[in-house]
Amino acid sequence: MRILVVEDEPAAARVLAQGLREHAYAVDVAADGVAALERAEATDYDLVLLDVLLPRIDGLALCRKLRGSGAAMPILMLTARGGLDERVQGLDAGADDYLSKPYHFPELLARIRALLRRGPAITQDTLSIGDLVVDVRGRRATRAGQRLQLTTKEFALLEYLMRRRDAVVTRSEIADHVWDGSFDGMSNLIDVYIQRLRRKIDDAHDVKLIQTRRGAGYAITLDDAGTADV
Asked: Tens digit of pLDDT for each residue in 87-109?
């Protein structure tokens, strides 16, 4: 899942982005409202973490602009102004939730999970197909009851494929939701990670879940499972 962090304090943005990346989220950072609006118009984010006190365009105005443009991603406002009036203003501007600073990072993660569950096609914390089970909250995956040792990015890729199970996802879609803005679209990194997942998920099993659709992308599905992947 790809998150846009809108925070003008560099140290706070850096700590927040690092913490989210350690929990398998891809993160882009914008330091002001104008930069955030440009990023949101160019990228299909799964969620926005939005500070209220921003230069150029403040968080409330930015939230209204995003909603006015038809953006439907969840927006979680983060601000030092935690009074009732401020919370009401944030929610009326189009935010889905409001968290006052300072906050506990585990609570922030829980609120992010709750907001993502409300999105279309994101409805649960446990995803499964055949004997593959992914526990999103616990950041763990098993196949046939055996724990899979996945890196943070491997888990993020697997989670995205599972969220889109049975659908063919393109390399562009994977890049947009699993990697951040520094991803080089000309590299073969996605193919490398798909192969790593195949080794860990499929190599020891007759039923192969990760399928390649030539010229289209990849799918995690039981359709054609067990056939050779080319």
From this structure: 788 888 999 999 988 889 999 99
In degrees rounded to 5, what are phi and psi of residue 121?
80, 5
Closest to 54 (Cα-Cα) out of 64, 62, 46: 62
Classify burial at 6, counting beta carbons within 10 Å of its beta carbon; exposed 0-12, middle 13-18, buried 19 or more: buried
User: pLDDT class for 121, splitting at 50, 70, 90?
Assistant: very low
The amino acid at residue 32 is D
- 1: Cβ–Cβ under 8 A, 6 or more apart, which residues? 24, 25, 26, 46, 47, 116, 156, 159, 160, 177
> For the residues 176-192, what does the mean pLDDT come to?
82
What single letter denotes the amino acid at residue 103? Y
Would you give the distance in Å from CA 34 to the centre of its chain?
22
Average pLDDT value for residue range 28-46 = 93
- pLDDT > 90: what percent of the chain? 61
| Cβ neighbours, 10 Å, residue 29 | 20
Question: 155-172: string of b/e by CB count within 10 Å (b at 16+)?
Answer: bbbbbbbbbbbeeebebe
Cβ(190)–Cβ(160) under 8 Å? no
pLDDT digits (tens, 9 = 90+) for 49-67: 999 989 999 999 999 999 9
Residue with tokens 């350690």: 22
